[in-house]
Design brief:
Number of helices: 12
Largest sheet: 5 strands, antiparallel
Strand content: 5-15%
Order of helices and strands: EEHEHHHHHHHEHHHEEEEEH
Protein name: Transglycosylase TgdA
Distance between the termini: 25 Å
Low-confidence stretches: 8-78
Organism: Streptomyces cuspidosporus
Keywords: Hydrolase, Membrane, Protease, Thiol protease, Transmembrane, Transmembrane helix
InterPro entries: Lysozyme-like_dom_sf (IPR023346), NLP_P60_dom (IPR000064), Papain-like_cys_pep_sf (IPR038765), PG_Endopeptidase_C40 (IPR051794), Transglycosylase_SLT_dom_1 (IPR008258)
Shape: elongated
Family: Belongs to the peptidase C40 family.
Length: 371
């Protein structure tokens, strides 16, 4: 039996109409077994005696694959990656994300995730409300009746998501004649105001605004369904090497591998520590690590990809476990209380998908470096 990894609940966060972001995020962590534990579908782990040679071959193979594919880009993206957006909101994001040329479904998803973490009840100290974090004054002028029920409800995602798309498109109209990338200029207008974009003939030289444009465009990659294969990670071999050295250590719920923890880990603590060795700071909990990069398909997995498991395969917020893929349908993972870090198969009924971690993707996460 496997205990769930620590899970996150977003309490509030967001910004709308150039207000200073004021976020509070809380983590709902429950000690021990939670009654919904994932079944272990593999009766026995791969023999420990062959583990070191197996991983050594996989590490070498990772570098070879990366070298072979490094010349290809990720390509143009269309639509949403499977499971990237909670099922309740996926049709809305897909529809309204195509409202105008300046946005796309993945970009809209990235904004909504950055604003509220898909929490329709989020309210920030700056009084930004709902899943799209509109400030009431902005909502009064830009909110739309997306579901045609006769009212404009800031708390209703069926109104708020269409309103977010419409607001983006209205900003894009203001800056359509400004030189440069229309999407970048729209995002800069969202953060700093259209006047600043017009004044500087593009993204203004404000560090906050430039970071916002980079954050959203990077985060969008984790929501987009790639047309071509996802570029391999050059850091993956070292992450696998770290995880391989932890094989046989007992699982510890909430473990980060510190001396106080006796060098023990839980599932997301292990993946976080593995990528920390290559200079990538992942969030602490598994369902936040999901958005640290693009999502390769099952038949495109490479060693080093993070593989995830969820209670609801249509809702990434229900992710409860993560491991590091090592090839051959196997992962290294810290499975549950009473077990040790080991190899397990990934092809189980609760497998939701994978993430190819990137440094920019991890930096773009709203909870990066949070405990």
């Amino acid at each position: 039996m496997r205990a769930a990894c620590p899970a996150r609940m977003v309490s509030a966060g967001g910004r709308r109409n150039f207000a200073v972001r004021a976020e509070t995020r809380s983590y709902d962590v429950q000690m021990g077994e939670d009654g919904r534990v994932r079944k272990v579908w593999l009766g026995v782990s791969v023999a420990f005696g062959v583990s070191f040679s197996l991983v050594a071959l996989l590490v070498i193979g990772t570098y070879m694959v990366a070298a072979d594919l490094a010349g290809g880009g990720s390509g143009t993206t269309v639509g949403l990656a499977k499971g990237a957006v909670p099922a309740a909101y996926q049709p809305l994001v897909q529809k309204w994300g195509n409202l105008c040329p300046a946005i796309n479904p993945a970009l809209l998803a990235a904004q909504l995730y950055q604003e509220s973490g898909w929490n329709p009840k989020a309210q920030s100290p700056a009084n930004a409300k709902g899943i799209a974090q509109f400030i009431p004054a902005t909502w009064a002028s830009h909110g739309v009746d997306g579901d045609k029920d006769g009212d404009r409800d800031i708390w209703d995602p069926r109104d708020a998501i269409p309103s977010a798309a419409a607001y983006d498109c209205s900003l894009a109209k203001y800056v359509k004649d400004v030189p440069g990338d229309l999407t970048h200029n729209m995002l800069a207008s969202y953060n700093a105001g259209a006047y600043a974009v017009i004044k500087y003939s593009g993204v203004p030289p404000y560090r906050e605004t430039q970071n916002y444009v980079k954050t959203i465009t990077t985060l969008a990659k984790s929501f987009a369904a790639p047309v071509q294969k996802v570029r391999p990670s050059r850091q993956s071999a070292a992450a696998i090497y770290f995880a391989q050295k932890q094989l046989g250590k007992p699982y510890l719920w909430g473990g980060d591998g510190t001396p106080e923890d006796g060098g023990r880990f839980d599932c997301s603590g292990l993946t976080k520590a593995a990528y920390k060795t290559v200079g990538i700071d992942l969030p602490r909990v598994a369902n936040d690590q999901w958005n640290a990069g693009p999502h390769p398909k099952r038949d495109e997995l490479l060693p080093g990809d993070l593989v995830f498991f969820a209670y609801d395969l249509d809702d990434p917020r229900s992710i409860h476990h993560v491991g590091i893929y090592v090839g051959g349908g196997q992962m290294i993972n810290a499975p549950y209380t009473g077990a040790v870090i080991r190899f397990d198969k990934i092809d189980t009924p609760d497998y939701i998908g994978a993430t190819r971690v990137t440094k920019d993707g991890a930096k773009a996460l709203p909870t990066a470096n949070s405990a």
